[in-house]
């Protein structure tokens, strides 16, 4: 089946009228969550041929160990025989600590053989990314440790108070102060990680880092990129070209250099929220 995937993708487009058709038709049945409040589908990513999809459930609960929001990520592959989405291998990753929120973001490479997973440290809000490869019927993590990007100063712990917990879980209703944005190159061996500033950091503009996977370890490529001003939320969204030589990042709270733009004081800062996108 693997060798026929590009042809299958074209056939599916033709069956639905092609890319210029007026109407979209659903491919297979819904991919449903299994546990109440796991928020499956908070993050999704699809391979370029449209046959594999990664789905994050950042609020998935480890009920056996009474840990909330450990998070879980699964990858599904479309089966043309049954016209349904079937899980590819076992769960790619399940968080190991409460409020880790694994799957707060996900990314897939060109053919869906590599998946990147965003997660956080429940003590200080530090952002991490893990990358897994599918081979020999299962998912294995590429060695080299966790890819990390940090806040300076760190945000308050989501474990510390009811307010902190609400902030940590606010991604279920919109933007999360603990967001990690991800993108992979086509071969899955280069990753860009964006870490926007939390809304109460007061001084962090957000960061962007790029890593290469070489000789069984992840090595940062170039310098750490940062936003211009405190709480720019630089890195809230990221994108990467096919070969990984060009990256883009969004900073939705940047003042944009536009005079007269009203300030949005929700983050406790002055200046307009015109926003910007920047390409490197």
List keywords for this structure.
280 residues; 2 helices; 6% helix; 31% strand; globular
Layout of helices and strands, plus pairs?
Blueprint: H1 5-15, E1 43-46, E2 52-57, E3 72-79, E4 84-87, E5 93-94, E6 105-108, E7 114-120, E8 127-135, E9 138-141, E10 147-149, H2 162-168, E11 181-184, E12 190-195, E13 207-214, E14 217-220, E15 225-226, E16 237-240, E17 247-251, E18 276-279
Describe this structure in words.
This protein is mainly beta and 280 residues long. 6% of the residues lie in helices and 31% in strands. It has 2 helices and 18 strands. The chain has helices spanning 5-15, 162-168, and strands spanning 43-46, 52-57, 72-79, 84-87, 93-94, 105-108, 114-120, 127-135, 138-141, 147-149, 181-184, 190-195, 207-214, 217-220, 225-226, 237-240, 247-251, 276-279. The strands form 4 sheets. Strands 1, 2, 3, 4 and 5 form a 5-stranded antiparallel sheet that branches. Strands 6, 7, 8, 9 and 10 form a 5-stranded antiparallel sheet that branches. Strands 11, 12, 13, 14 and 15 form a 5-stranded antiparallel sheet that branches. It is globular, with a radius of gyration of 19 Å. The model is unreliable at 1-17, 151-175 and 259-269 (pLDDT under 50).
């Amino acid at each position: 089946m693997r060798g026929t995937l590009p042809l299958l993708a074209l056939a599916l487009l033709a069956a639905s009228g092609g890319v210029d058709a007026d109407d979209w038709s659903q491919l297979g049945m819904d991919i449903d969550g299994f546990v109440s409040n796991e928020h499956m589908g908070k993050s999704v990513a699809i391979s370029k041929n449209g046959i594999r999809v990664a789905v994050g459930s950042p609020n998935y609960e480890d009920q056996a160990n009474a840990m909330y929001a450990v998070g879980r990520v699964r990858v599904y592959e479309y089966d043309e025989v049954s016209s349904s989405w079937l899980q590819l291998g076992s769960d790619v990753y399940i968080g190991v600590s409460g409020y880790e929120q694994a799957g707060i973001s996900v990314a897939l490479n060109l053919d869906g053989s590599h998946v990147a997973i965003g997660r956080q440290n429940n003590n200080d809000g530090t952002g991490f990314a893990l990358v897994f490869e599918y081979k020999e019927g299962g998912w294995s993590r590429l060695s080299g440790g966790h890819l990390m990007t940090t806040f300076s100063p760190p945000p308050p712990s989501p474990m510390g108070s009811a307010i902190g917990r609400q902030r940590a879980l606010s991604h279920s209703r919109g933007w999360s102060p603990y967001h990690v944005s991800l993108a992979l190159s086509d071969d899955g061996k280069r990753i860009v990680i964006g870490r926007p500033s939390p809304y109460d950091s007061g001084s962090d503009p957000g960061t962007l880092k790029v890593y290469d996977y070489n000789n069984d370890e992840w090595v940062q490529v170039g310098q750490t990129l940062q936003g211009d001003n405190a709480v720019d939320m630089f890195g809230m969204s990221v994108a990467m070209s096919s070969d990984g030589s060009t990256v883009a990042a969004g900073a939705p709270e940047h003042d944009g250099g536009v005079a007269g733009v009203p300030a949005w004081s929700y983050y406790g800062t002055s200046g307009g929220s015109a926003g910007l996108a920047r390409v490197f």
